[in-house]
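From the shared-data thread, chain only:
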Amino acid sequence: MSYATGLMPNQTPPDRPSEIASLGGKARAKALTKDERSSIASHAVSMRWNRELPRATHSGEFVIGDKRIACGVLETGKRLLTRETFLSAIGEPAGFKAIDGMPAFIAADNLKPFIPDQLRESTTPIFFRDETGGRRAGYDASLLPMVCEVYLQLRDRYLARGTPIPSGQAHIITACEMLTPALAAAGGIFTLIDKATGYQADRVKEKLVEILETSVADELQPWICRFPQEFFLQVYRLQGREFEPGSDLSPADIALFIDKYIYEQLSPDVASGLSESSPMAEKRYRRQRRLRSLIANTGNPHLDQQISIVTTLLKIARNTAEFHDLFNRAFAPKEPMLVILDA
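Structure, as tokens:
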């Protein structure tokens, strides 16, 4: 053995750095115990899961009939149903079974004539991390109404032929007969998910903020994205409007409200100082919606206090007139103190 190269006489020295590294890696692997190699492999897999899995920014659940369905929205905007509750919704057991690459609930031969390509693509499980960091499996939310449609078409074929529905599929058809009209009445699966997770309100706030940034006081514009969502929800409620996509945003009214009840109530030095200390991360905040729960206030104590007081008054008030009355009492100008001097 050559001490210069660490090789036996019949061994050829490697001619590339990568080969030298490979020899070193193999020697190290031989020196490790089985448990140590297993631990290293598990760590590598864990790091790959942590790095590659998309993360849910919103999560929640909704109820249809006696079915409670857990759902979420990924940072890409894709809506999901967790695999367990999806299977429960159609009356299938929680265990996952695949037949010829298709989930068991859609793999039967008598279903094949009704299965479109889009449904086939949606049956691929989506693995993701929930808001706590846990690993979850789900399906594209659009899969549920598509599966219902397939089973209802199957039902119609058997009814048209006057033949009984296979017993192994009857329970799924019963579930789909309940789910389909309920989904339609709720405005569709995406509407249900957006409401259940709060994603709908976040989308409205994001759009509203973009409009308001050009219509409120200049010093306040950079701070608008950090106004708590509850503030906007209560302003809409008091105006008798739904805080949802497609509703009348009336940004001019909202801008006037903010200027009058928030900005104009700040002392002149605080108002003028807002532009000097304006947040620089509002665009990043909008892109990374998963941080929304971490930013509970604007970071400016004077502005936070004013927003908090006004939001509280909005929540208490039953109508606009009552809000104005409460606000005027809360912010009534202080009367000068009367000092009586002894004669």
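The chain has two domains: 56-197, 199-330.
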